[in-house]
Amino acid sequence: MVHDDVRVEWIRRCVSAGFNLPDDSKCFDELLERGDGEEGDKMTRFLNSVQEENCSSCLLFFKTTREEEIEVETPVERTRHGHSSDPDEETWIQSGAEIPSGGSEQRFDVQAVYHVELHVAVNEYPERFLKSTVFYFIRNTKEPVDEPPDMKEASKLLPRLFDIGMHHGPPLFVLQNKLANVYIPLVTAHQMKMTGAGYESKTDSPEGETSGEGEEKSPVKSKGLLTYRDELLNRMYKYLGMVKSTIQHQDETTLLIPELDLEPAVDVLRSNAEMVEKLEQCVTNWHTQITLVIELQQNKKPQGPDPLAEITLWQERASILSGLSEQLKQPVVNKILKVLTKADADIVQTLKGTVAELTKYCVESDDNLRFLRTLERHFMNLATGAHLNVLIETIPPLMSSLQIVWMISCHYNTNERMVPLMERIAWQLCQRVTQVIDVHTLFKDEREVAKTKVHDAKQVLDQWRLSYFQARAEIEESGRNERWEFEWKRLFERTDHIASVCHDLYNVLQILEEFYNNFGPELISVTGDPKRIDEVLSRVDHLVLPIEDVSFNPFEFGKMSSWKMIMQDFNTTVQAIEEEAINFVDQSFKTLRSSAAALEMLLKFKNIRSREAINNHLKRKFNDILIQYCKEVESVNEIFETEKDNPPLNRNEPPVAGAIRWAHSLSHRIKNTILPFLKVPEMLESTQCKAVKKYIEMSMKIRDYSEKKYETWRAETERNLPLLMKNTLLVLVTSDILPTEKRLQTGGRYIVNFATEIKEIILETKHLVSLDYNVPDLAQNVALQKDKFIQYEIDLDNVVNCYHSAMDSLSDALVTMLAPQIKAVKTNLYLGCKRLNWNSLGISDFISHGNQAVSKFKLVVSQVQKNERDIESKLQSIAMANLLKYQVPDNSKDLPSVKEFCARIDQERIKTVDLLRRKYADIGPLITKTEHLTRGTTSGKSKFMADYYIYWERKVLDSLMKMVLRNTQTFNALLRGSIPLFQVNVILSAPKIVLQPQSKDIYWLIMQCIRDCVESTKQFVRWMHGTCIECPPQQRGEEEVVTFSFCSDVGQHPQVNESVMTVSQNLQRLLLSVDQYLVHWKRYRPLWEKNKSIFNEKFASRNPSCVMYDDKLQFFSRINQEVTLEPLFKNEHIFHLNLEPLAHTVQEAAESWIRSLGSLLNKPAKEDLFNLRDELMVLNRVTLFHMS
Fold it and tell me: Where is the segment annotated Disordered (predicted)?
């Protein structure tokens, strides 16, 4: 069954595959359903829970097999004589049971059926499953495991979130096997990759190496900064030892003591024959147990090829044998033996012989373990040393310890014991070396690191051989012990082979380095053919590909011949590359690009290690270099002749000094090349002497050019510089554009008059002095004051820019108003345009006074502009004011009537206009403040500011115009909208359907709001002419008082009139659309237009039938029903029409017609009813008569 949760389904598939369950197995589904789904809930909680910090969560599945006996019906074939062919059946028949007759019988057999069951646990390992197969998922994420969209996505995502594993058997044995066979090799390899076996950084290339096979190398001491041991690996070995010790204690052999009463005396027990027999059987069992243990321990081999396995073996043997020996020393054992001794039992002597053998082996184990313990530290260093230097340092003291063990040990002084131990040490050394040296990745490391690795690896193996023979020599010299005549192959065959491979790898790395030294940047700069060099280097790179792609392990002794073939091919390819490189060098030196680079390369090759054949060939190329130098001198001459009139300059470099510098660079180019030539003995012996002559001619030509340039500049500077220094500080520049009033006031722009020629002379002087040329005194003096003049220029620029920025920010009105302040600033600046020059002493004072005047002017401007911003803010408030403010309720039932709506707008308008009136009143004082800043008066009617007053009065009018237009246009937009603003009742005023209030009243109410909006400008009183003071009311005639406001200007403006007219027209259209909607109700007009009394009496006079009455009544009832279905409220643009009064009136009219017709129907219906009664009575009497 596929589970709904994709995560659980993925777990099911993993568990089924791990336990090798058939596809149709139902055991996982049974697990999910067990305990009312509790087991399935465990998985869900495991997947959805949030994991705590530093805490892991594990889901475990256990597989068990349950046996069940069932009865199976089996057909039984009977023989011709009536006997069953099954002997069991025959027995059953003979028991007397009745057998039905027939050729075939049925019987029931009991068969055992095995059911596979799964169990689950989270973060616990139940004791009952200790020996069961377990499949586990360990979460490696803290967050809940999200459910993937499908199984394909789950197969990609979920394996990244879990560590999955499986094991079978007792946990301690599983842990031991995984530590020994998985984790320790894995951590060893991982640490070698992570730390590079201690080669994280570059190290110096080993010195004192020789290419000879047989030459020894001195051991390299490890650096104190390196970690001596790999702590993790070391602790894992110790932990493995603890696990083994625990397992060993669990498996200890225990001598069984019989549960007999041994309290009586020995003689009493001896006299009991039955007791003696039982004790003899017990001792016989002991003898068998001890014999089996001794035999088992003697046949036991170390569980691993490393030397630590030897210690583990003797440790286990000593522990087991000493445990047995201690059990034999128990008092109860001694008493049993005494009883049997007095009873003359033969088993006692047999047991004594076995115990003696046990004691001998126990002493041997203890002695061997004690000596091996002295070697354990060295063995641990070999297994867990953080780098190969640790192994190199460990081997000599290890060999000394082995020598001591050989001399004083009673058991490790034979070839049978010592050779296997030393063979294990050799295996450990080979193992560590092959873990560090991986030919597939060695050449991807940095070259120095790789060389150091290979060198140290060979040193380890050479140190092993060297230390062995040193110890052997010492033993022979002492003459007190047996010599070490060990089998050479077992100790050194593999180590020597691996050392030979390491030597080959080191030579490969050395050859690669030599090739890279030969074909480096120096040769590229000389030959100018990087592509060809890259091709050669590519071939060099491909030299190691056969080694990197080798399909066998070169460290295996059996692959020696294959490895030698690879090295032979390598050497052949190296010779071919050398020959090609020599041909390439010959071709390149015929077309040299740079003689200096070529010479530098040749000199460098003298001091670095490179291929000897290529190096010797390069030494014969000095004549080619001289020929190239002559070509370079010719090339420099051509450049000089081509560019001397317009030489290339550096950035910010003056023309004269730049030209001289350029000429000197050409001279230095050929000079710097010739000087090293003259120092090389090979060059002095050369016959190419014309190179020196060409150099001298070119140098003279460049010198004459430089001198001419300098003299010309000096003469011009002495003539022009005094005149330039007499220029005035500032010049006034007027524009050719037609002047405005503002430009007439400012009178042009000021520019700092510091000539660019002076700057150029200063720059030329600075560069020429650096070229060791003498310069005129005045130029030198000006150059020394360069910083001062530049600062003057910057300060003057600041003054002028500050003045112009202030002027540019002024409007024409402000320029006119601030004319006195502008004139004061210009008076200060005038001094720099007429009297002061760059030789003057008062430049600093002029700048200071100018700064003060401009700052004062700028302060006034900023304060005036602040006042203007305040005024603009108030005018903006006026322009953006909302005079037709209203609030639309959330519920349409809460909408006000038209009169209430207009009254609310009127109230809000009065408040708003009052606030705006106060803001308008504040404008005059602000202008008065400006008057005080500029004129020093606060009258509000300064004649110098008349234009300024007019300017702001126009601004006020513009703001009021914007206010009125914006409000009328906004209200006009509302008229065209669909949001209802007020409520209007629709009533029947017979014979018409009208609005309440009527349309014309609504029109005048709304238009009055618009007129009030325009007339609200009467609150803004005009200023008296030539002032910013409000004009008081004026008496006109005897009683009339006139107040001059902006209302007349605003009300007469065409745009305002047009906007008001638009509102009027739109409002009339809306009222017309409402009337058109009400036409729908006019179909009920006959109800109130016709006289129902006359109409009904006329109808009744025709003596109609009841059916005709019914038709009429149904007609009016339908009208009543239609009116009931009509909407009682209708939104028509800004109108919310309340149709309820109209509908109620129409319904009342219909009901009135129904009542009138009913009253007329009553009389004829009553007469008809009485007539019917009479007829029925007559019929009744006739019927009774006939019946009688």
Answer: 74-97, 197-221
Tokens 């803004």 belong to residue: 1020
Of the candidates 853, 799, 798, 821, the one whose C-alpha atom is nearest the C-alpha of residue 745 is 821
Other Cβ atoms less than 10 A from the Cβ of 560: the count is 14
Ramachandran bin of 123, using left for φ above 0, alpha for ψ from -120 to 50, beta for the remaining angles:
left
Amino acid, single-letter form, for residue 826: K
Confirm if 147 and 6 have CB atoms less than 8 A apart. Answer: yes
Compute the distance between CA of residue 337 and CA of residue 322 in angstroms, rounded to an integer.
Answer: 20
Give Cα 982 distance to the centre of its chain.
59
| Long-range CB contact pairs, 80-87, < 8 A, 24+ | none
DSSP label at residue 183: I
The Cα–Cα gap between 665 and 629 comes to: 16
DSSP of 569-591, one letter per residue? HHHHHHHHHHHHHHHHHHHHHHT
Residue 1102 CA to residue 1106 CA, distance in Å, equals 12
* DSSP β-ladder status, 982-989 and 992-996: antiparallel
Q: Which helix H or strand E contains 984, and what residues bound it?
A: strand 982-989
Residues ≥6 apart with Cβ < 8 Å to 265: none
What pLDDT, on a 0 to 100 scale, did the predictor assign at position 205?
40
Token pair for residue 797? Answer: 């620029």
Contact of 76 with 84, CB cutoff 8 Å: yes
Interatomic CA distance for residues 951 and 817, integer angstroms: 12
Task: Give the tokens for residue 1011.
Answer: 């007129």
Question: Is residue 816 within 8 Å of residue 947, measured between CB atoms?
Answer: yes
Name the more confident of 668 and 706.
706
CB neighbours of 742 closer than 8 A, spacing ≥ 6?
Answer: 810, 812, 815
**Using CA atoms, how far apart are residues 140 and 128, in angstroms rounded to an integer?**
27
Helix, strand or coil for residue 940?
coil
From its phi and psi, is residue 45 left (phi > 0), alpha (psi between -120 and 50) or beta?
alpha
Give the whole-angstrom CA distance, residue 485 versus residue 851. Answer: 106
Rounded Cα distance, 1130 and 1080, in Å: 13
Least confident piece of the model among 224-238, 511-525, 697-711: 224-238
**Pairwise CA distance, residues 1160 & 981, whole Å:** 49
Q: Identify the sign of the CA torsion 662, 663, 665, 669.
A: positive
As separate numbers, helices (DSSP H) first and strands (DSSP E) second, the chain gives 42, 12
Whether residue 262 contacts residue 269, with contact meaning beta carbons closer than 8 Å, is answered with yes
Sheet holding 133-139, edge to edge: 104-122, 58-77, 133-139, 162-167
Tell me the CA distances in angstroms from 932 to 774, 928, 1031, one per residue in order.
Answer: 63, 6, 21
User: What are the residues whose beta carbons fall under 8 Å from the beta carbon of 898, sequence distance 6 or more?
Assistant: 982, 984, 997, 1001, 1002, 1005, 1006
Alpha-carbon distance values, 236 to 194, 311, 427, 657, 1171 (Å): 18, 16, 20, 76, 126
CB 1114 within 8 A of CB 1122: no
Locate 20 and state its tokens. 């090798």
pLDDT, tens digit, 9 for 90 and up, residues 632-676: 777 777 777 888 888 888 888 888 888 888 888 877 776 666 655
Inter-helix orientation angle 273-299/346-384, to 10°: 30
pLDDT tens for residues 237-285? 667 667 666 665 555 566 667 766 667 777 777 777 888 788 888 888 8
Q: How far apart are the first and last CA of the chain?
A: 93
Residues 994-1039: tens digit of each pLDDT: 888 888 988 999 999 999 999 998 889 999 988 988 888 887 766 6
The SS3 of residue 603 is: helix
State the virtual CA torsion across 857, 861, 862, 867 in degrees, nearest 10. 150
What integer pLDDT is reported at residue 157 of this predicted model? 85
Beta carbons of 510 and 451 less than 8 angstroms apart: yes
